[in-house]
Amino acid sequence: MKPRNRFEKAVAASNGKLTALSPKAVEWAVSNVIVHIAFRTSGHNCTCGDCGAKFDHKGKGKTVCCPHCGHRLQVRDTLKRKEVQSAYFSSLEVVDGLQVQRVFLLRAVCRKGMMLKTSCMEVCRLWLNAEGKMAVTSRARTLGWYVDSFNWCTGIDLKILSEVHWVISDTYVYPRYKVLPELRRNGMRGRLPDDCHPARLMKALLTDSRIETMMKSKDLQAVAYFVSRPLDLDTCWQSYKVAARHHYRPSDYGLWCDTVRLLEQCEKDIHNAKYVCPIDLKAAHDNWLDKRNKAAEKRRSQEQMLRAKAKETDFYREKSRYFGIVISDDDIEISVLDSIEAFQAEGSSLHHCVFQCEYYAKVDSVILSAHDRQGNRIETVEFSLSQGKVIQSRGLCNSNTEYHDRIVGLVNANAYRFLEARTPA
């Protein structure tokens, strides 16, 4: 790809000035990026994947130290004789006043009885200037769905920055790095945040003063979270400043940001330390979530009641002739639900959908409520006028109670009363 502007021309000119990666950086990557393993068979015979030497290990721990080379190894109970690993890592350098993240692919082959073999190939380079502009030089990609589909025979040339470059550059960074003076000024020195994309971090430091503030205060956990979630930063920045003034640092920024959003939905002051600096973050989150859910449920019930009121006239015209019908025996009393409010109370008490599903609007049905002599609700009964019988009777959470058959039998035995009320005299 040909350079299209002054910045890309500078990148293309600086691209050829980079030298080979230092052996110390490769050595660090071999030690920290790949997994070092020990092959263990059922006879507790272990083979070091680094030096190829054999030793016995009968312990139950997941790691062991090789007595020959001294490397810490992860124990693998396997009969495999070969293990191949691939991993990306990066180095940060400065060339001609441009910041560059160099991305390498490290390939390691562990084979029983042989020394660990590694190879390192550079894949791409992400470039930034002091204003935060970005460009990429990369090897050409071959046709395929895999991220690693690079043509290793091509050179590293100017390309269009794609999602693949963002994915593979989210890697470990060699700790001996060099950065632009502007990045050092904005707080990028020493240990970098864990699980934070290096290029996104550098771009954010150059373009967003809020990330600079967090970086200089050494709140690396917040930096790692907000660099990858800029919308959360827009929402929670004022609350974060309040928390920082009170020396409050959440243990989980994802949970904390969710709590701030819940506070806002509950119409609480998200600039008040009383709310944004809870002692028990999880308990506070769960408390405000419960309040938000209850408020939402109350709002939905009010909206449902408004819709029901619009049908109230039709309900009374069709069902008022059945009001007053009461069926009872020694223990149970069954009466017709005679108002919209009664339907809502019935559904709320027995936790079923007689109100939400608008059974009051069913032309062919009469809904009754079965109580005991103390007034406790037992079941809700739907009587079909066209069939002249009970078509369902539901108790708490739509379950059947011990009185189910008795209730159904009582209503069916008095079906003639509904038919008489339905037919004018």
From TrEMBL:
It comes from the Bacteria. InterPro entries: PcfJ (IPR025586). Pfam families: PcfJ. This is PcfJ domain-containing protein.
